[in-house]
Amino acid sequence: MAVTMALGAGTASAAAQEPRQDKRVYNAMQIAFDPAHPDAFCTIGAVGNDDYGRKIAVSAGHCLSGPAYADREIRENIIPVYHRQDIGYGPIGYVRWFKDPEGSMTGHLTKDYMIIELVDGVTLSSQGPHLKQTGVLEVPGGNPSPNALSPAPNSERLLGAAWFNNNELVVSGQLGVWYGRITNNDRGVYQAHPPHKAGDSGGPTIWHVPGTAYPSEANGFKAEGPWAGITKAIILSYPQYAYTSSANILADLRARDTADPADVYGAGFEVTANP
């Protein structure tokens, strides 16, 4: 779901905002960009900190359409982000970077992500309604993301999807929590069986750690594992559900930060350890 924005002016940084009453921000939180249109929404995939001490949330780039602001660092507070179920709180953050959505819904764009800088008044939480994220997925020996510089760290390597691989994603969204095997890996865009629907774009996925419990009625339909990516699109294939890998996002952040040191929001992103 892409939202075309009419953007106004602003200058202050999110970190400079006056702290307000405490508010928890977590994976699977639904977010809106226009208080007058809360039904045009997307979802947070992960929250944490970057290398520069900023509070960061990650969502899908195709949630916005604004060519004048895409593919560059946005230092002005011109694209506010609201908790969809609590618009009255005011902005929980501001968009700092997003990928132009052209081609993103085909399932093949490798950089379909958005970086949001959260305001000081919020508290980060690794626990969403269903998923607890235990850090960032690392894949020793995996193929590097196409966005990665060489050598690629384990956090920028991809899960396998061949017949002898049994890598599974666990996904949380409006349909609840689902899990299923990755059937294809197209340049770091995973195809998998867990379903999602419009508005879930940007939402959380974790890797199912072998031997750990699947979400079930017995455990309250909850699961935990490392952050593996974000919900991307429904595509014309089977299974029709596509997800952007965390490796693609982290690799692109590092590559951009290497080219422009200390000037890239989200660079070095780590999932929060806060409960």
The main β sheet shows up as: 8 strands, antiparallel
The fraction of residues assigned to DSSP E strands is 25-35%
Derived structural class = mainly beta
At the fourth CATH level, what is the homologous superfamily of the largest domain?
Answer: Trypsin-like serine proteases
Main sheet strand line-up: 4-3-8-9-10-6-5-19
State the helicity in percent bands.
under 10%
How far apart are the termini? 30 Å
Number of continuous helical runs: 1
Question: What would you report as the Rg, rounded to the nearest angstrom?
Answer: 17 Å
Low-confidence stretches: 4-13
**Strand element count:** 19
- Into how many domains do the coordinates divide? 2
Q: What coarse outline follows from CA principal-axis ratios?
A: globular
How confident is the prediction overall: mean pLDDT? 91
| CATH hierarchy: architecture of the largest domain | Beta Barrel
CATH topology of the largest domain: Thrombin, subunit H
Provide the CATH top-level class of the largest domain.
Mainly Beta
List the secondary-structure elements in sequence, H or E: EEEEEEEEEEEEEEEEEEHE
Explain how this protein is built.
- This protein has 275 residues and is mostly beta strands.
- It has 2 domains: 3-127 and 263-271, Thrombin, subunit H (Beta Barrel), CATH 2.40.10.10; 131-246, Thrombin, subunit H (Beta Barrel), CATH 2.40.10.
- The protein contains 1 helix and 19 strands.
- It has one helix spanning 246-259, and strands spanning 3-4, 23-25, 30-32, 41-43, 46-49, 55-59, 64-65, 80-83, 93-98, 114-118, 122-124, 131-136, 168-173, 176-186, 189-192, 204-207, 223-234, 241-245, 270-271.
- The strands form 4 sheets. An 8-stranded antiparallel sheet has the order 4-3-8-9-10-6-5-19, with no helix packed on it. The chain has a 6-stranded antiparallel beta barrel with strand order 13-14-15-18-17-16. It has a two-stranded parallel ribbon with strand order 1-7.
- β5 (46-49) and β6 (55-59) form a beta hairpin.
- The longest helix is centred in the C-terminal third of the chain and has 14 residues, at 246-259.
- The chain is globular.
- Mean pLDDT is 91; it is low at 4-13.
